[in-house]
Write a structure and sequence with these properties.
Elements: H1 4-7, H2 16-22, H3 36-47, E1 67-73, E2 76-81, E3 86-92, H4 96-102, H5 107-110, E4 114-121, H6 126-129, H7 133-154, E5 158-162, H8 167-174, E6 180-189
Antiparallel strand pairs: 1-2, 1-4, 2-3, 4-6, 5-6
Helix pairs in contact: 2-7, 3-7, 4-8
The structure holds flavin mononucleotide (FMN).
Flavin mononucleotide binds at residues 24-25, 106, 108, 160-164.
């Protein structure tokens, strides 16, 4: 699972310091889409496998990895399968308006080309961490989101984290089972057309 998406990109020439400096929650999206390759690259930044033991770009308590990423884009909903580094289509149709409603009708989600939903699969952490499992899921969501926000900055995209959402309504948009709990969103787009 080589991190080819990022290292093969000229954007790898953007320094980490510049990304840290340049990261801003940006909501001034234009109508231009963000391609599947770029969405895949963002997911890799959040949860890509970078090690033969299955460890990832973001740290995880005990290496348990309780989180999953879903991308809500104009063409449908995709799941990022971290072990295979594949962005797989799971639902057809533009569910962005429904996601916007679930995110308390915030324009940032309504105008985004795509929104990445960070979901905790409850139960994965519980056996090992008991009552601390919920806390660890939230901490890890922050790590994953920050990785994606910095990658978006490196890629010249606009992005903003969104924590104000109706968890259960968001789960319904994604048609996920009860143990899957949406925690945090990263809305992504472009501020000006790229051509
Ligand atoms: C936990 C958390 C939840 C947030 N939720 C939202 C949100 O629901 N909607 C939104 O537009 N921005 C949201 N933000 C982005 C903040 O508004 C933003 O980080 C803040 O204004 C500081 O700006 P900066 O990110 O450019 O440094 C959230 C940020 C964090 C860390």
């Amino acid at each position: 699972m080589a991190p080819t998406a990022i290292v093969s990109s000229p954007l790898a020439l953007v320094s980490l310091e510049d990304c840290l400096h340049g990261r801003r929650s940006r909501r001034d999206f234009c109508r231009e889409t963000v391609g599947e390759d770029d969405l895949h690259r963002l997911c890799w930044a959040g949860q890509g496998v970078t090690d033969t033991e299955g460890l990832r770009t973001a740290p995880s308590a005990g290496g348990v990895h309780p989180l999953e990423l879903y991308v809500v884009a104009s063409s449908g909903i995709f799941h990022y399968d971290a072990p295979s580094d594949v962005l797989e289509a799971v639902l057809r149709g533009d569910r962005r308006p429904a996601l916007c409603t679930a995110a308390l009708s915030q324009d940032v989600v309504g105008l985004a080309a795509a929104t990445i939903v960070i979901v905790a699969v409850q139960g994965r952490m519980d056996l090992r961490y008991g009552a601390r499992a919920r806390r660890y899921e939230l901490i890890e969501a922050g790590h994953v989101a920050q990785n994606m926000l910095l990658a978006a900055t490196a890629m010249g995209l606009c992005a903003a984290p969104v924590g104000a959402l109706d968890d259960l309504a968001t789960r319904d948009v994604l048609e996920l089972p009860d143990e899957y709990l949406p925690l945090y969103l990263v809305a992504v787009g472009r501020s000006t057309p790229s051509h």
